[in-house]
TrEMBL record:
The keyword Acyltransferase applies. Residues 14-180 form the N-acetyltransferase domain. InterPro entries: Acyl_CoA_acyltransferase, GNAT_dom, N-acetyltransferase. It comes from the Bacteria. Keywords: Acyltransferase, Transferase. It comes from Longimycelium tulufanense. This is N-acetyltransferase. The keyword Oxidoreductase does not apply. Transmembrane segments: none annotated. Belongs to the acetyltransferase family. RimJ subfamily. One of its GO terms (molecular function) is acyltransferase activity, transferring groups other than amino-acyl groups.
């Protein structure tokens, strides 16, 4: 599937890019080297623009293979990337995916992610005809909990000691939205 753009009314969701017109690599590098994001996403090592370029290329390839649909959340006037939202672990046959998201540290606390993720949920349930979209995060990540609650996810349970945060084991909260949920 080709990347789809979504206008949320407040924010513009577009393909993550690194080209002559729009270069998201500086925003990606800055975000993934900020302490809070690094704390919860230690699997991503993005120390420089070259690594950010690989990240952008990986996201494009995942979209093409229908494995993951990721959008840059962009400020609509400047096009500046303020975060990323997406559906990962996509299984179109089983009508299943998991939501993922992060916000650039300079743009946190503005309600951006709730707006963006709700738009992606509509895309998932509508255009992709998904039945289930999950969302999981470390229990100490209160920002992710607020996003889940604002987007109407149901807390399904807890995976005990399933995450490693700052070198210590921590529970993971598991949420879900169904296409049949109000």
């Amino acid at each position: 599937m080709q990347p789809v753009e979504i206008n949320t009314g407040t924010w513009y969701l577009r393909q993550i890019r690194a080209d002559s017109a729009i270069d998201d690599r500086p925003a990606i590098t800055a975000a993934f080297n900020e302490a809070a994001l690094k704390r919860y996403t230690p699997q991503f090592e993005i120390p420089d623009l070259a690594a950010a370029g690989e990240y952008v290329a990986r996201r494009a390839a995942e979209w093409e293979r229908d494995e993951r649909y990721s959008w840059a959340i962009a400020e609509p006037v400047s096009g500046e990337m303020v975060g990323e939202v997406g559906l990962k672990d996509v299984d179109l046959h089983q009508a299943f995916a998991n939501a993922s998201c992060w916000t650039h540290p300079d743009w946190r606390g503005l309600g951006i992610m709730g707006v963006a993720l709700r738009a992606v949920l509509r895309f998932g349930f509508g255009a992709l005809d998904l039945h289930y979209i999950g969302y999981a995060h470390a229990a100490s990540n209160t920002s992710s909990r607020r996003v889940a609650e604002k987007c109407g996810f149901t807390l399904d349970g807890r995976l005990r000691a399933a995450a490693l945060v700052d070198g210590a084991r921590e529970d993971v909260l598991v949420w879900s939205r169904l296409a049949t949920d109000p």
